[in-house]
Amino acid sequence: MKEKMDLRTFILVDNMQPQYAAITGTVTKGDVPLAGMSQLYIELAPGSSVYHLLNAALKQTNAKPGFQIVEREYGEIELHSFSPEEVKQAGAAILNACELSVTDRYQPRIVSEQIISNIDPYQAQLINRDGRLGSILVPGESLFILEVEPAAYISIAVNEAEKKADIKIVTFEPVGKFGRMYISGTESEVRAARDAALSVIDAVEGR
Asked: What is the pTM of this model?
């Protein structure tokens, strides 16, 4: 009996922004993504199903894989290309192999969100030391933290925030139970980034 797959995340990033792409590139184990590329994130269970699904996508398209991750509960795939059509076709190939549609994905849930204004120097240092992949958080800046479930949806939130506001990405985590992003800048720019991030998350339809 064929095991039914649980499609937790299926999301397209239309145009990877410079900071977002650069940080993503530091953690990919496969082909390195670049700014201007389109990107596909898929997260599902059982985790080991990512192997044959990625294989199906690579055989049918020219999209390149950044990683395939198998966690304790979930598996995750990242694919990217300068051609949006290639990325869409890769997604279609995976959905076809799963016998699922995009409407079977989970709708993202905002777990928490907060803005910390005029951040203290000691707290800035702690955040900078704790797994930072991007920019340095400078004392006195405002910091926005967003947490979503499923985790991989944080990718579109980070990218959209950078697209719509002049902010710095301190770090983001798209793998695990919850996805988290940390962005900093002036109070007004951070608030604009927050609005953009929440808006794009709210616009994702699913079950």
From this structure: 0.94
